[in-house]
Amino acid sequence: MPRAISLCIPVGGVAGLFYIIPICVVLPPLADILEAPVAQALPYIMHQAMGTAAGGVGLMFLVLAVCIFCSISITVAAGRVTWAFARDNAIPLSWLWKRVDSRFGVPIWALALMTLVQALLGLINLGSSSAFVAFTSAGIMALALSYGVPIAISLLNRRREVMAAKWNCGRIVGFTANIVALLWIAFELVLFSMPTALPVTNVSMNYASVIVVGFMALSAVWYVVYARRVYKGPPASDGIVDDS
User: Fold this and answer.
1) Of 1, 93, 95, 237, which residue is the least packed, with the fewest Cβ within 10 Å?
2) pLDDT by residue (tens digit) across 34-52?
3) What distance in Å separates the CA atoms of residue 23 and residue 44, rounded to the nearest whole number?
4) Residue 177: CB atoms within 10 Å
5) Nearest to 228, CA basis, from 236, 240, 220
6) What's the pLDDT tens digit per position in 138-184?
C-alpha cells in the first residue's frame, strides 16, 4: 500500500502530460482565451479545438466525469478527517460527528456536514465571484499548510520518526522530496494569494490569505477556550516503532 501511494504522483504526473500537451498544442490565441464566454477558458479551448460545439461538449463531459469522481473522493476524505477530529474531541459537537453508522460502517453525520459545507460554499458564487475565488484559494492554501507543517516538523526532527517507520523513502530520497515539497508549498501560498487581475480593485482583490489567517485565529481561540482541555492528539500510529 505505501508503495502504491508513493507511485500516485509520478504515474499521475506522466498521465497528465497526455492531457496537457495536446491542449497546449491546440491553444487559440491568448487574447481570445481571455475573452472566452463566461470567463471559462477550458470549454472555449475545447470548442475551438474540435471545431464544433458538440465536440467541445463531448470533451467537457470527460472532464466533468473526472471532477465528479474527484469530488466524491474529496468529500469522503474530508468526512473521515472530520470524524478523526471529532473522535479526539477537537471540534464542536464532537459527540455527533464521531458517530459511525452501524449498518454502513461510515461516519454519515460527518459526511453530511462536509456535503452541506460544500453546498453552502458553492452558493457563494451566486452572490460574489470574488468571495468564491477567495474561499477556493483559501482551501488550497490550507491544504498546502496542512501538508507543510508535519513535513517541516519532521525535517526539524531530522526525520527520526519517519526513518523508524516500517516503510520509508530512505534518507536521500526522502529528505530531497521533503525539501522540494516545502519549496512547492511556499510557491503555492504566494501564487494563490495573488489577485485575479490587474490593476487590483475591491472586486479583483484576492482575500484568500485573510480567510486563512482568520480561520487559524478562530482555531487558536477554540483551542485555548476548550480543545486544550480535552484534545490529546491522534492515537499513536502502528507504523512507527516505539523504542521507549
Assistant:
1) 1
2) 888 877 888 899 888 888 8
3) 11
4) 15
5) 220
6) 989 999 999 999 999 999 998 988 888 888 888 898 899 999 999 99
